[in-house]
Amino acid sequence: MRVLGVDPGLTRCGLGVVEGLPGRRLRMVAVGVVRTPPEDEPHERLLSVQTEIDQWIADWAPDAIAVERIFAKANIKGIMGTAQASAVPMLAAARLGLPLAMHTPSEIKAAVTGNGRADKAQVGHMVTRILGLEEAPRPADAADALALAICHLWRGGYDARVDQAGAPGGRTNRLQAAEQAAGQAGSNRLAELHAQHRTAQRAAAARASGRSGVRPVTTRRIVP
Amino acid sequence: MRVLGVDPGLTRCGLGVVEGLPGRRLRMVAVGVVRTPPEDEPHERLLSVQTEIDQWIADWAPDAIAVERIFAKANIKGIMGTAQASAVPMLAAARLGLPLAMHTPSEIKAAVTGNGRADKAQVGHMVTRILGLEEAPRPADAADALALAICHLWRGGYDARVDQAGAPGGRTNRLQAAEQAAGQAGSNRLAELHAQHRTAQRAAAARASGRSGVRPVTTRRIVP
């Protein structure tokens, strides 16, 4: 399974492709950063990011896309550009019918380092170790994109294994195993994993039934 | 000149097409709202909005797109979806090389009602009068989209006329005329209009020179 991780942004958008299976060694396929010039108009910058992400998807054919879930911080102006940039991989996934997951920064940090409050250096260090790299990917956005992909493979791996297992008993064991693997525990996480699983099942059912999942309702009035 | 106004959102995305020239009577071409079901995944909802906006652009062939500029409010969760939805018309404009403008809520209200703090009812009332409609468009998102298009035509009209006029003296007179037309005055607005003008000129120059304006800078490292 191959995952494209996207750490969204207009100034720097981190991209990382990681391949592997849960419980197996993971392999980095590609890593990079899309930078767009601040002097360009925001919509031109968005298109630049889209052009590049589309190219990455064409080049590396990921099975899934993982995007960092954005929260509001002090820098509201920056957050708007980041939120808009996050729409790009979301749209790509929806258009291509690729599974999409949004992971929070603390989920990513917990999955990679075992600590939801780890700093950039710790994340970079663990990404380097997990992927067997010679040095930490730079800038931090690139390392974050790889961490996202790793997080998704390890968390997504749970769903893949459950789908194969099927039995309710096996499911609970595998949930616990997944929690341990991600270095996190507790009923909140369990509820999250359950919710994720239901979402994945719904998406899979929708894909299997040939339904697009796209159901816009539009009212339109025209005065000639 | 025909303008597509977009009041972005996932639950309701207002769309309005208005045709006209500065100083002339404006005409409503189309108005509507895209609604996407909250039970759909956010990325599916974004794609629904994109599919619909692309269809509107194909159907109505606007010369420009105007999008409401989003600011952070109390409802941070809602604002993220709105910011992501705003990326859709921005990407469309960039992709198609259509001029794009972002107008703030107070600019829109000031342009339509003469008061930057007007309420929804006042905006709906003035939109109805300006476009000679029999009743106010509902829901408010639809009226807001029309207000955006009107705002853009009146503000953008300034640029169009200046481009034709050229002379510095005429430019100042027309700036003042545009300010009066939009029911606003003051040096802030003048500076804004100047900035808008420069942006429009730059975009026009870029289009004329065949330059796309898209200059992504990407670093990519691949480990085979």
Question: What key phrases describe this protein's structure?
Answer:
6 strands; DNA repair (chains A, B); alpha/beta; homodimer; cytoplasm (chains A, B); five-stranded mixed β-sheet
Biggest sheet descriptor of chain A: 5 strands, mixed
Largest interface: A-B, 57 and 57 residues
Helical percentage of chain A: 40-55%
Uncertain spans of chain A: 157-194, 210-219
* Separation of the first and last Cα atoms of chain A: 53 Å
Query: How would you classify the quaternary structure?
Result: homodimer
What is the strand tally of chain A? Answer: 6
Sequence-ordered SSE layout with sheet pairings:
2 copies of one chain form a homodimer.
Chain A: E1 2-7, E2 12-19, E3 27-35, H1 42-60, E4 64-68, H2 76-96, E5 100-103, H3 105-113, H4 120-131, H5 140-165, H6 168-181, H7 187-208, E6 217-222
Parallel strand pairs in A: 1-4, 4-5
Antiparallel strand pairs in A: 1-2, 2-3
Helix pairs in contact in A: 1-2, 3-5, 4-5, 5-6
Notes on the structure:
In chain A, α1 packs parallel to α2, α3 crosses α5 and α4 crosses α5 (about 140-165). Chain A is built from seven helices and six strands, in the order βββαβαβαααααβ. Chain A has a domain at about 1-150: Ribonuclease H-like superfamily/Ribonuclease H (Nucleotidyltransferase, domain 5, 2-Layer Sandwich), CATH 3.30.420.10. Chain A has a five-stranded mixed β-sheet, with helices on both faces. The longest helix of chain A has 26 residues, at about 140-165. Chain A is of the alpha/beta class and about 220 residues long. The radius of gyration of chain A is 18 Å and the shape is globular. At the A-B interface, β3, α1, α2 and β6 of A face β3, α1, α2 and β6 of B. Chains A, B: It is found in: Cytoplasm. Chains A, B: GO terms for molecular function: crossover junction DNA endonuclease activity; DNA binding; magnesium ion binding. Chains A, B: Belongs to the RuvC family. Chains A, B: Pfam families: RuvC. Chains A, B: This is Crossover junction endodeoxyribonuclease RuvC.
